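Researcher: Structure prediction, please.
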Amino acid sequence: MTGRLIIASNRTAAPGEARAGGLAVALADALSERGGGVWFGWSGDIVEREPRGAHVFTEDGVEFALADLTQAEYDGYYLGYANRALWPVFHYRIDLAQFEEADFAAYEAVNRRFGRLLAQFTRPEDVVWIHDYHFLLLGQEMRASGWSGPIGFFLHIPFPAPEVFSSLPQHQRLARAMAAFDLLGFQTDRDTANFRRYLIDTHGGELLEDGRIAVFDRVLTAKTFSIGIDPDDFAALALGDEARAAAERVGGIIDNRALVLGVDRMDYSKGLPQRMEAFGRVLDDNPDLRGRSSFLQIAPPSREAVDAYQALRVELDRLTGRINADYADLDWVPIRYLARGYPRETLAGLYRLARVALVTPLHDGMNLVAKEFVAAQDPEDPGVLVLSEFAGAAEQMPTSLLVNPHDIASLAEAIHRALLMPLEERRERWQAMDASIRETTIAWWRRAFLEALDTTRPDA
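Model: Predicted structure follows.
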């Protein structure tokens, strides 16, 4: 028997909130296909006193259960442990991580409170699907509250190599909690292998014949489910009126020069300084390209209260100023750097206009910008994707120009090659990538995960 779906994510797409982006739509569709369920998460509100319950709203048969945070919880659980410890470590930036015991205590307390709340919304026949690094302890807390049904977990960011994960002072506590999940989904085979190797090498886990892992007196499944997009939907978006208007506006500004485009949150994991340095190197080494191409980097700020992000903003301002001062002319600016966000419709138009897209994170779970860029292209005259080998998308898109973003010279060479690539080669590379993104769409991702989770039921 298939029960309701219970979803937990740090933020939800509650009634009245826009469901921009594929993930929110995918989760809403998953709930709809199950005939309703519960979507639990943080309300986005910060209150003075610790709340005892959750605000419940109903829309189209789905209950939205939203819990508030106190200022101390927000500072410790969200800004602290989630974003100053887990985020940098999972993105291989141990040097930026801050390991504060008080932050972990807040993280643990919020997971405990949320786990107890979520358990109250479950029925015996339900299945639970928990999302991302904010809730690594949530499954164990639900078990402690009496929930014995299937619990799945999907990690949207990378899972690091065992020796990197072990840098977290609480890594053993986290591992035992993650073993409370029946199914753990990861973006790439590399992430899945890292998690398995950590359990086997560090905790004596045993890899069974059926691929499951026996560890901590439990048996769990770790498997790759590469998240995707709806390519037809995004392709249609790129042909819409708003997309065309955005492309015409930018095309007029750059005077039909070749557009090199980057679209990322302002985050140190995205490799933005390296990208700007590489574009500057292209101009250094190729005088013939000066005035013939323009680099547009869109980078809306994120987590501005965290020191590392403030330092990144200063570095990007410095690099942009230096390169533009060296090479700008009266009618041309090499780099346009916009620290603000734009609607998906606008971005779709810019993707279609771009001759080159730079998706060069230092580490990334998947990076759907790469897939959206491919979906937005004109099949007769597609652009070129320059993609970091450390982005999850690289496993599925080997016909992109794969680069090591730490190697500035090679990254500059790839940008140069992309700008000069012949049409026939651009078509061949794009066709292979387009076929790839159509194999693992966002609909495939949610269905594949939930089908696998259903098989963990004792009666399956």
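Model: The chain has a mean pLDDT of 94.
Researcher: Thanks, that helps.
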